[in-house]
Specification:
This protein folds into 2 domains: about 325 residues, Tachylectin-2, Chain A (5 Propeller), CATH 2.115.10; about 120 residues, Jelly Rolls (Sandwich), CATH 2.60.120.260. It is mainly beta. About 0% of the residues lie in helices and about 45% in strands. The strands form 8 sheets. Strands 14, 15, 16, 17, 18, 19, 20, 21 and 22 form a 9-stranded antiparallel sheet that branches. Strand 14 and strand 15 form a beta hairpin. It comes from Mucilaginibacter limnophilus. Keywords: Hydrolase, Signal. This is DUF4185 domain-containing protein.
Length: about 525
């Protein structure tokens, strides 16, 4: 998502993602594998989707978007099935060579039936032979830059088809790089636009969400006659929220309901987070093959593309699982190909900002996660075992260090208490839970050295109440386990800490939080 007047380098992560099979007709639903926790495996970049290959780029390029359509570089690429078996794609800021011919957005159609060798774009939506801009920004129209609703650009964030009418939710960008941070921006609003001629013409609906609210950036999913809209605040530092509406009422904003952690409510302000993290450029599908919901997004805190899965759309959602970490190409914006909902392998587009903005197709298999379902992210502290223990971790780990004295994997987390007479958190992670629900927290711990008294393990609820215990530890691995009720809370802080004895030291590993039993 670029500001065409500013070199706004998107500081994001590296990941190539890809698709499975797509085409004029969606693949038939298959009898899937039974899994209780999904783990993407064998992640492979299949092909380039847009732009021109560089000298070092050996990837297959089925689309010469520059030669055929004048698009040399482009931002994100969302996708959805049109209701006819084809797939519609909507793109963000795109340019010709040397940042010429800027457009805030564009759309294309793909009838590709086989993604194994890349995603072929059948055609772009054009007007008088040139790629058409779907929504023209205020900046391009000459809007006063000092206007309260000044609009730099209009970027699609989510799309869906209902009865062959195509819908896009776009974000109206007011300012990029807020406070010099490329992962923060200000939005005026998000708004639904629709097309009744498969993308040739688009109409603003007037159905809008506040740019300062929790549905400023969106992702869509249809299930059982409902349209589900996932939302995040503007930028890349927000949690994920959820709303829904009957398909026939998609343009009736008062008909929308919002998930408050326990039930659906009418007030948008009643929405509570279904996942906690630094979420950006999100995509969600329901896999009929695996009978689970899959979510992918850029996690700024992890500097990686991450994956979550859930049995139900409202959760509980698993902790973040890194698909691919940053590796120099500043990857971001993973968007599922819609046919991934019916196939054994999943495919999605990934964008990267370096050396120039463009998109690639990536493929991944799905296997049963050997660690099982876990609401905790990085419960084994193994995502970056060769780095500092707190490196890009979902844990808050003040003063903790990695140790090779692990129960499993390469490392465990060694917790140290630097003070006497005060309680100090040594490890902390915030997790979304369902209110008034029973959970089990387990892990493994051992004493390190002679000082190991007064180590506490437990949860701190939003309302300030605490459930913890002080296990008896020795120098061998001991399983720790407790159950708790979330009470009237939507999040809890899982913590490990010390009270009292200075230089107390404990090693923890394989932490797990699951619905009871």
């Amino acid at each position: 998502m670029k500001n065409p007047l500013m070199q706004t380098l998107i500081a994001v992560i590296f990941i190539f993602v890809m698709y499975g099979t797509a085409g004029a007709k969606a693949p038939a639903q298959q009898q899937g594998d039974t899994i209780t926790a999904a783990l993407p495996v064998n992640v492979k970049t299949v092909a380039r989707v847009s732009g021109v290959a560089g000298a070092e780029d050996k990837l297959f390029n089925p689309n010469n978007t520059f030669r055929d359509y004048g698009i040399f570089t482009t931002d994100i690429g969302i996708m959805w099935e049109t209701g006819t078996g084809a797939v519609m794609m909507a793109f963000g800021d795109n340019f010709g060579e040397k940042q010429s011919n800027w457009k805030s957005n564009a759309a294309a159609i793909s009838a590709d039936k086989n993604l194994a060798d890349g995603l072929t774009i059948t055609k772009f939506i054009t007007d008088s032979g040139k790629v058409k801009e779907l929504v023209i920004s205020g900046q391009k129209k000459g809007q006063d830059k000092h206007a309260a609703d000044y609009e730099v650009t209009c970027i699609p964030t989510g799309g869906i088809a209902v009865n062959k009418r195509q819908f896009i939710n776009y974000m109206s960008v007011h300012q990029w790089a807020l406070n010099g941070d490329n992962d923060q921006w200000l939005l005026n609003k998000s708004e639904l636009i629709y097309s009744d001629d498969f993308g040739k013409n688009w109409t603003k609906s007037g159905v809008q969400w506040d740019g300062k609210g929790n549905f400023a950036q969106t992702a869509y999913l249809k299930k059982d006659g409902k349209v589900y809209m996932f939302g995040t605040p503007a930028g890349r530092y927000g949690n994920v929220f959820l709303s829904r509406v009957d398909e026939a009422e998609i343009l009736n904003k008062p008909a929308y309901e919002y998930w408050n952690g326990s039930t659906w409510v009418k007030a948008e302000t009643g929405a509570k987070a279904i996942t906690v993290g630094t979420t950006a450029e999100m995509s969600v599908i329901y896999s009929s093959y695996y009978k689970r919901y899959f979510m992918v997004y850029l996690s700024v805190g992890r500097r990686a593309i991450v994956f979550r899965d859930a049995e139900g759309i409202t959760g509980e959602w698993s902790g973040e699982k890194i698909i691919m970490p940053e590796d120099g190409n500043a990857l971001y914006a993973p968007y599922f190909h819609p046919y991934s909902a019916n196939t054994k392998d999943i495919y999605f587009i990934i964008s990267h900002a370096a050396p120039i903005w463009n998109m690639f197709l990536v493929k991944a298999g799905i296997s049963q996660d050997p660690a099982g379902f876990n609401l905790i992210g990085e419960g084994g502290f193994e995502d970056y075992p060769d780095n500092n223990i707190s490196f890009r971790s979902p844990w808050y780990l003040p003063g903790s260090t990695a140790t090779a004295d692990s129960r499993s994997g390469k490392v465990a987390c060694k917790l140290d208490n630097p003070e006497t007479g005060v309680f100090k958190d040594a490890a902390l992670q915030t997790v979304a839970v369902k209110p008034n629900t029973k959970y089990t927290l387990t892990g493994w711990a051992k004493a390190s050295g002679d000082h190991f008294k007064n180590a506490y393990f437990g949860v701190r609820r939003e309302d300030g109440t605490i459930k913890d215990f002080n296990p008896a530890l020795n120098t061998g691995w001991t399983k720790i386990s407790m159950t708790f009720n979330s009470g009237n809370n939507n999040t809890v802080n899982v913590f490990f800490g010390f009270w009292g004895e200075k230089d107390a030291s404990t090693i923890i590993d394989d932490i797990k939080l699951t619905p009871y039993p």
